[in-house]
Specification:
Elements lengths: L2 H19 L3 E9 L2 E9 L2 E10 L13 H17 L1 H4 L3 E10 L7 E5 L4
Parallel strand pairs: 3-4
Antiparallel strand pairs: 1-2, 2-3, 4-5
């Protein structure tokens, strides 16, 4: 695995633990379909959170969330709807939301974590 792949996987693991500690149930990780991949799908209360995780060792080339342009967010919404269609029983009664988690620091375990809820 490359450094970026290893860093990304560690960041996703940290993000999943962060969500669990915040009361979310992680329903799926690295879910793939023909249209692409979702990092994390989680639920809390009546919210179904489609969560994109961005992990960077620093902000030298910009904040991790700067990678989420309008097209990427629209793609996450499309993928979220695809997940709902594939899992109607798990999504029943939930309202979908797209979130992002940024992890910034050399070691994902101790890095700064930011959870941005409700991307449009």
């Amino acid at each position: 695995m490359t450094h970026n792949t290893t860093l990304g996987a560690a960041g996703e693991e940290r993000a999943a633990r962060h969500l669990a500690l915040a009361g979310y149930e992680v329903l799926d990780r690295n879910w793939r379909c023909a249209e692409g991949e979702l990092d994390i799908v989680a639920a809390r209360g009546r919210v179904l959170a489609i969560v994109e995780v961005k992990t960077r060792t620093s902000t030298r080339y910009g904040h991790p969330l700067e990678a989420l342009d309008d097209e990427k967010v629209r793609r996450l919404w499309r993928l979220g709807h695809a997940w709902v269609r594939a899992h109607p029983e798990r999504a029943r009664g939930l309202v979908m939301r797209v979130d992002a988690i940024a992890i910034t620091g050399r070691e994902p375990e101790s890095a700064r974590i930011e959870h941005l809820e409700g991307l449009r």
